[in-house]
């Protein structure tokens, strides 16, 4: 536990290297030079959702602290993840700094840059959604529907209905005979 006065605001560094072959020395040196007394280090791919050191860092933050990274890509898995993480920090009263890109959310310029990033990420998400919907509409116009093809043939459906109507078989037995799951039997018989 630190002997620091609780009103002191800490610069806390976060280091991430993607592979075991990479070394964190460059990031550590830069963060120490920036004044970070504590560092949290993850040796994991940025694509991983859970990073233990980042989670530990986020749990220990206090309002007024600043999270410092060497480069933006060290913190976020994607632009959306980066923006969400920085917004979470902002809601906690924690600032964010990236040394390489010279972004500091305690300054008006730093806040502006992050709002622009957020707008771009939202625009990208909307474009993807729009393209997906247009593609689905075009496919439907050509008679194609999404999803897996049905395993139910008219013959299988007839057999399942006969077995159920005989009241000698339960749903599990019908599913085994027809070669489908119980849930599929329930859905198919509910539709007919």
TrEMBL record:
Gene3D superfamilies reported in the protein's UniProt record: Homeodomain-like (1.10.10.60), Resolvase, N-terminal catalytic domain (3.40.50.1390)
Record-annotated Resolvase/invertase-type recombinase catalytic domain positions: 10-143
InterPro entries cross-referenced by the UniProt entry: Homeodomain-like_sf (IPR009057), Recombinase_CS (IPR006118), Resolv_N (IPR006119), Resolvase-like_N_sf (IPR036162), Resolvase_HTH_dom (IPR006120), SSR_resolvase (IPR050639)
Gene Ontology terms describing biological process: DNA integration
Molecular function terms, GO-annotated: DNA binding; DNA strand exchange activity
Residues of the active site: 18
Keywords from the UniProt entry: DNA integration, DNA recombination, DNA-binding
Record's keyword annotation contains Signal: no
Protein family (similarity comment): Belongs to the site-specific recombinase resolvase family.
Protein name as it appears in the record: DNA invertase Pin-like site-specific DNA recombinase
The organism's taxonomic lineage, starting at the top: Bacteria, Bacillati, Actinomycetota, Actinomycetes, Micrococcales
